[in-house]
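queue> pop job 88
queue> type: inverse folding (structure -> sequence)
queue> payload:
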């Protein structure tokens, strides 16, 4: 494998061809003379024997512009004969260049202060110098369509196969400027054996170089794919223009063929077939084809200083390395075991891991330093950090809890944290929630409580578990408090199946009787006041007037008012002898006879209802009509109801006459101003009460005197 000393490889398709040509011939020992002072002046090149053999002549006259080309002078341009021969020569001779970068940073003090241990000390410090190899693979990418373009793309990789970004891609600490590296690099001195014979250069094994080249090729292909997008965007307009020109030309040719000259249409078919053939040729000519070839690669030795040291806290040790690039001074510090970031302040955890200050965790129990990967977790109850040695894993939630907040379950024996355990609301024993049952009876505050299987009793009524139970007085079984009721009659507490609810009232079975009529259970049995038959309230009737029970045979339902009246209290209207209700219409207060609703009348003065025979044509009842001549004088202030506010307001202003009938006591007051007042007292009420007290107008007073 030949070692070439050329240090200016092609980097982009826009490289100055004149500079490239000048560098090429200068590099390979040719004598170059510049003819003129212009920027693109021609070159006169006297070739070395090796170059003369390759180019077929000892002397070349070169120009870089079409206008300067003349007899005996060759044009250097992309795709020209001279340019292709330059690339061919490079293909044969520029396979590998082995270079070595100079050592610019010789001091080692920075290595000694590169790391600052936080909880350990440095022991066994060892310093050594190493050479790290970088590989720059130069790929020639050819794009062929209706034109030809070439590009030389460099991929830089280290010995491990990791790609390093170049200046055209990113600007970081790892950015590589391959031109600057090759410009600063120096040829590696050839090593010789004892006999003075040169030894081959020390490189990586061929299998590893092949693997690196295959990885670099993938990056070159990806770069070519990206560039193809831009190239195709430039090709498509040219293809469209060419196809449009062809289509227009052939359409005109087809239209100029007359039907008389081409009766069979053969000429038109030939033109159309020719058009389709040319379109296919142009599409194929504009199809983009890409070829990627490895033309050379460079191996660059980078001097590296390595400081290997041991961190020790007295119990455990860990080895770390700090690297410094002697060429550019870049420092490579140890990476954190957790976040994989380079760190200056470094700590040693209990398991020997090197971690940065941001990833340090400390167990609250044993105070050991651990990293986040080593299992430091917050207790699910108190929140304190604990390690796997000081904490225990909860079998219920899978979280780690400290020793103070985890204990074996009293039922299953598993270690369960207190966040997953609950005390029984009855006995207070702590156990897993999965072993507890919900108390069917709510607590005094209306909240649901959890109870253990020992304290839980299954209610035979609702089949739910509860610790709030009581004994049924009828059966002796234990029912929950929701299923126990107090008998309305005897007050005993009985459970489901030992009581009945009648009209939303609960009665125990001992307090219920069987109705002899309907055979239904009833809390009480009534006796008819006439025949003495027993029946329940649903089968019997209650007289609306005397409030006594009667059987259905001795009770009457009035049609007009739907009241139930017993046979004893049944009355008839003394006028029409029809059905009358003693509840709706009491006996007439004057004649004391009952009357129906159709034969009643209202006195327009006192407002009381009487039978029609006791209310005169004038609208006054017999009592009000005769009070003026039959009434007896009375001192109203001495009457029992004189203190009533309505009566007290009228009493001092009138002279009062008193009259009465079987029910009402009526007071008529008169004065000198022809004004009157009337007071009506219901004397059958208990106690007697004033039902009306008002003034009477002058017209009504005169009308009363006239009719009285």
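queue> result:
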């Amino acid at each position: 494998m030949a070692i070439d000393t050329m240090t200016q490889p092609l980097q982009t398709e826009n490289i100055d061809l004149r500079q490239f040509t000048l560098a090429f011939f200068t590099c390979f020992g040719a004598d170059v003379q510049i003819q003129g002072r212009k920027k693109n002046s021609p070159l006169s090149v006297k070739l070395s024997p090796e170059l003369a053999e390759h180019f077929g002549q000892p002397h070349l006259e070169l120009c870089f512009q079409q206008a300067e080309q003349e007899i005996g002078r060759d044009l250097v341009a992309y795709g020209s004969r001279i340019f292709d021969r330059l690339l061919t020569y490079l293909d044969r001779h520029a396979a590998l260049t082995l270079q070595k970068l100079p050592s610019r940073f010789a001091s080692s003090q920075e290595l000694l202060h590169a790391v600052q241990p936080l909880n350990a000390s440095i022991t066994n410090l060892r310093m050594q110098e190493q050479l790290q190899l970088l590989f720059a693979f130069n790929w020639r990418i050819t794009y062929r369509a209706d034109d030809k373009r070439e590009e030389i793309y460099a991929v830089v990789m280290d010995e491990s196969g990791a790609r390093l970004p170049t200046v055209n891609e990113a600007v970081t600490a790892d950015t590589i400027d391959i031109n600057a590296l090759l410009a600063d690099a120096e040829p590696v001195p050839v090593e010789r054996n004892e006999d003075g014979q040169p030894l081959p250069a020390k490189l990586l094994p061929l299998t590893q170089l092949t693997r690196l080249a295959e990885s670099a090729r993938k990056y070159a292909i990806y770069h070519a794919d990206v560039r193809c997008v831009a190239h195709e965007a430039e090709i498509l307009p040219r293809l469209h223009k060419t196809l449009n020109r062809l289509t227009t030309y052939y359409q005109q040719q087809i239209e100029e063929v007359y039907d008389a000259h081409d009766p069979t249409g053969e000429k038109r078919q030939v033109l159309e077939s020719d058009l389709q053939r040319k379109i296919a040729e142009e599409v194929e000519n504009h199809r983009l084809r890409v070829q990627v070839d490895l033309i050379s690669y460079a191996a660059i030795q980078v001097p590296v200083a390595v400081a290997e040291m041991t961190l020790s806290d007295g119990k455990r040790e860990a080895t770390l390395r700090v690297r410094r690039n002697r060429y550019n001074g870049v420092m490579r510090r140890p990476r954190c075991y957790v976040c994989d970031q380079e760190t200056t302040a470094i700590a040693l955890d209990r398991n020997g891991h090197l971690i940065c200050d941001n990833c340090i965790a400390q167990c609250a129990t044993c105070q050991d330093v651990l990293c986040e990967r080593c299992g430091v977790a917050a207790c699910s109850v108190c929140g304190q950090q604990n390690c796997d040695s000081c904490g225990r894993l909860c079998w219920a939630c899978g979280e780690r809890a400290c020793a103070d907040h985890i204990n074996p379950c009293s039922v299953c024996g598993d270690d369960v944290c207190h966040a997953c355990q609950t005390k029984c609301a009855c006995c207070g024993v702590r156990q897993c929630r999965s072993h507890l049952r919900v108390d069917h009876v709510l607590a005094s505050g209306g909240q649901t409580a959890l109870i253990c299987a020992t304290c839980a009793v299954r209610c035979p009524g609702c089949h739910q578990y509860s610790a709030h139970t009581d004994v049924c007085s009828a059966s002796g079984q234990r029912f929950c408090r929701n299923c126990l009721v107090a008998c309305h009659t005897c007050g005993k507490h009985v459970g489901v199946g030992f009581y009945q609810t009648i009209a939303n009232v609960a009665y125990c079975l001992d307090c219920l009787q069987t109705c002899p009529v309907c055979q239904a259970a009833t809390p009480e049995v009534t006796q008819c006041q006439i025949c003495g038959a027993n029946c329940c309230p649903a089968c019997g009737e209650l007289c609306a007037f005397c409030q006594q029970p009667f059987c259905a045979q001795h009770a009457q339902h009035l049609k007009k008012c739907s009241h139930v009246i017993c046979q004893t209290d049944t009355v008839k209207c003394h006028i029409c002898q029809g059905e009358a209700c003693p509840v709706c219409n009491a006996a007439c207060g004057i004649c004391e006879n009952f009357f129906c609703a159709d034969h009643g009348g209202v006195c327009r003065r006192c407002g009381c209802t009487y039978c029609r025979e006791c209310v005169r044509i004038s609208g006054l009842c017999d009592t009000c009509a005769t009070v003026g001549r039959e009434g007896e004088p009375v001192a109203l202030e001495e009457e029992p109801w004189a203190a009533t506010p309505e009566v007290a307001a009228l009493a001092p202003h009138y002279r009062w006459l008193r009259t009465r009938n079987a029910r009402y006591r009526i007071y008529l007051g008169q004065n000198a101003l022809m004004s009157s007042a009337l007071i009506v007292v219901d004397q059958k009420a208990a106690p007697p009460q004033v039902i009306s007290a008002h003034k009477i107008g002058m017209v009504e007073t005169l009308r009363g005197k006239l009719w009285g």
